[in-house]
Amino acid sequence: MADEIRPDLDWGTYRFLFAVISTMARDAASLAADLEAELVRLAAEHGVELPPLDMGGGEAP
Question: pTM of the entire structure?
């Protein structure tokens, strides 16, 4: 990244954008986790067996 930062860039703007993106990413991750937990709860409530969760590492969390 240091190679791409030039002295004429507005560093404050980039800092603001990265902070906004970071916040949005955390919010999205939290929402996704809440939705997944609700899905698991509803599946259990309705007797639906969910398949094992494979996140690419071959291990369920």
Answer: 0.67
